[in-house]
Specification:
- This protein is an alpha/beta fold.
- It has helices at 5-8, 12-20, 27-38, 40-53, 64-75, 81-94, 98-111, 139-148, 169-175, 185-195, 202-205, 207-210, 213-219, 225-231, 248-260, 316-326, 334-347, 354-366, 369-377, and strands at residues 115-116, 122-126, 153-157, 197-201, 235-236, 239-244, 265-269, 284-290, 293-299.
- A seven-stranded mixed sheet has the order 4-3-2-6-7-8-9, sandwiched between helices. The chain has a two-stranded parallel ribbon with strand order 1-5.
- The radius of gyration is 23 Å and the shape is elongated.
Length: 379
Amino acid sequence: MELLPSLQNAETGEIDALAAGLDPGCLAERRIQRQLALGPERARFCDLLGKVGSGEHTSTGLSREEAREAIDLMLGGRVDDAQLAAFLIAHRIRRPTPQELTGMLEGYRALGPTLHTPGRRALCFSVPYDGRNRTAPLLPLLALVLAAEGVPVVLHGGEPMPVKYGITLAELFAALGIGWRGLSLAALQARLDRHGLALTHQPDHFSAAERLVPIRAAIGKRPPVASLELLWTPHQGERLLVSGFVHPPTESRAWEALEAVGEADLLTVKGLEGSSDLPTSRAGITARMRQGQVERILLHPRDHGISGAEQGWHSLEQWRADALAALRGEGPLAEALTWNLGAYLWFAGRLSTLPEALDQARALLLARSGERLRRELAP
């Protein structure tokens, strides 16, 4: 039995008076009395939780509007921790539908921080917040060179995230001397305007979503809100959104959810550890969705003279040394950075063919353009 809509916005005194007038001996009224004791918002969340937490034959899932309502209640701090944990693990077990992801994404867009690149088309990367622990990341290096070449890059991330607790974008940039923690949103926008690069840091810029982190740690599994981090970007305006994924169902759900919210240009990438980093040891599996039409694009590095195993993750100190060398076109990460830089220059429309983009990538690394921008951003 759902709480009557007229009660959901009632004042506390009105609810207390109504509860006092109910007959505890009547089972139907007893249930309403217990719901009223929860308060209208927590009682409403119980209804939503029941729809995602029911069994295989009775679960109905949430409509787009209900999913938006649920995420608004969660991010607004209007439900307790037990309800949050129950919802997140139940949603994890049942798996979110595209319409649920659409509604929740609308909540993230409304409540999260926003950055703008007026008159410029941005590349916006959305990768897992739980970071990397097996392969050496390339995205901070890629972002520096792209931004130096005049392609605005917008990133987002947070502190080490359960359950993987891998190395984060903020930690990687900090190893290169570039800090993103503790900056105001206005300072980030100023960096984006001047240097073409910004990273919003969840603890600083999206405290509502950060509230869910202890609950995510307690349930011991990545909940579906982690999927929102692969769909959402703090950027508003013309862009190419790049979303990493691991499992094919994640990709197809992303297509449906992002089409429903009007995302005009999307690139999904089966990258290293769910990131947007294209591998060098195998074909890069990507897909471009424009105006609802999906084109599968396979990138074969061997066809362009690039091969070799991915570089493993060893330590932040080792990564820093290899990263600085790669920005000069040298060292064990240079070939993979060249491959990724060429591919994303091509995806961004800077060059008409991938071979031309790879030649440009090599020239940019030899010119040390990314290293110059790193020095400008480092204190």
